[in-house]
Design goal:
The mean pLDDT is about 95. Strand 2 and strand 3 form a beta hairpin. Helix content is about 30%, strand content about 45%. The protein contains two helices and seven strands; from the N terminus they run E-H-E-E-E-E-E-E-H. The termini are far apart.
Length: about 150
Amino acid sequence: MGRFAGSVTIKAPIESVFDFHTDTNNLAKIMPGVVEIVSLSKRGAGHGTLIELVMRWRKIVTLKWLVKLEVFDRPNQLVDLQLKGPFKFFRHARTFVTTADGTKMTDDLTYELPFGLLGRTIDRTFVRRIVAAQFALRHRLTKALLEAP
């Protein structure tokens, strides 16, 4: 099972940081340039919301995802769980804590690739580095967007 955990502190109120991550329109703003969002739809609000997403990676590979907001605890925690998609298992938790410097947002991602041993080898060889780089970029972009005047 793969795992990524990382944090960023953003000089913005906790509610603003939480709400930024619940607005699906912001997803395209924090995606790496090699990922294009082809379509996105959202059904519901809050806990239980279903989000359908089609992305294209490097204009070659199309990925379809269906995720459900498993936890919606405004403004403290947001957790989405993949119901259908490219991973065998995918759970992304975000926690938000007010600090003296703003809001500390922590991403905790747990995932498993399909294909057993081959998937674990691909994860160790490539995917873990890609996930870490993508979340570092997401953190920088989120911080820049929310701290902009």
